[in-house]
Design brief:
This protein has ten helices and six strands; from the N terminus they run αβαααααβαβαβαββα. It has about 240 residues and is α/β, with parallel strands linked by helices. Strands 3-2-1-4-5-6 form a six-stranded parallel beta sheet, with helices on both faces. α9 (about 185-195) links the parallel β4 (about 180-185) and β5 (about 200). The relative contact order is 0.17.
Length: about 240
């Protein structure tokens, strides 16, 4: 983890670069942060094909490789399952496979309605992907650009480290405990919890028991609407060990 001074200085340096447009909410407003894959974008099938192809290409166990991918940066997955390989070179190969997927990354049908709740409010995304790719997929699905987008290139350590979520809170000028996070992967849930945020897990890619660390668990993105509305109005709170089913 960075020291508080080191982290503050780094955030100051990147602050202007990663605001995609002005945020109209007041200084003390609460914020909502989203993961992208598995939350706003339905990328499960495409990424399963990509990682399986790469695993076969490198004579690795596809199931083992897949188990290390969720919520993590590709370079972190590569380093975990094949530390003998050049992670940067392998990531370039994976990006080639990704390009061959074309439009295999649709947004979830309920994503637009959920994001409409956040017009003129503080929100952003924290992703293990890269900004150009993420924006391309969101725009292709008719979704707005996030006011703040923290991607894999902007952090020293990816999820489950909390760095990405802490940076997003800084850029939004909102204390970490005032951020509600929508996640789908255990690594992301852990990252947000460690950051001191309240977490809603969507069961789009993982079983309920794998998401036990979340404060709330729901089936679909639409099911987050009451929780998001309640959060913005001060009615949704960290529920201790209770879970929204």
């Amino acid at each position: 983890m960075w020291s508080a001074l080191e982290y503050a200085c780094h955030v100051r340096d990147v602050h202007d670069a990663h605001h995609l447009h002005d945020i109209g909410a007041g200084t003390n407003d609460k914020a909502v942060l989203f993961d992208v894959d598995g939350v706003l974008v339905d990328s499960y099938a495409a990424y399963r094909r990509i990682w399986s192809r790469w695993a076969d290409h490198r004579n690795l166990d596809p199931d083992l490789v897949w188990s290390h991918t969720h919520g993590r940066r590709p370079v972190d997955t590569i380093q975990a399952v094949a530390p003998q390989l050049d992670a940067a070179a392998e990531y370039s190969l994976i990006r080639e496979f990704m390009a061959n997927e074309g439009d295999g990354f649709p947004v979830y049908p309920d994503a637009a309605a959920v994001l409409r709740l956040l017009q003129n409010r503080r929100w952003g995304v924290v992703t293990s992907g890269r900004t150009p790719t993420v924006l391309q997929r969101l725009r292709a699905g008719g979704l707005p650009d996030p006011p703040v987008l923290v991607d894999s290139s902007q952090v020293r350590r990816g999820k489950p480290d909390p760095e990405g979520y802490l940076r997003a809170a800084q850029l939004l000028d909102v204390p970490a405990p005032d951020c509600l996070v929508i996640e789908d992967a255990p690594a992301g849930v852990e990252a947000a919890r460690t950051a001191g945020m309240t977490v809603v897990a969507v069961r789009t890619t993982h079983r309920d028991d794998e998401l036990a660390g979340a404060h709330h668990r729901v089936d679909t993105l639409s099911d987050t609407v009451p929780l998001i509305s309640g959060w913005l109005e001060g009615r949704t709170h960290e529920p201790g060990n209770r879970t929204t089913r």
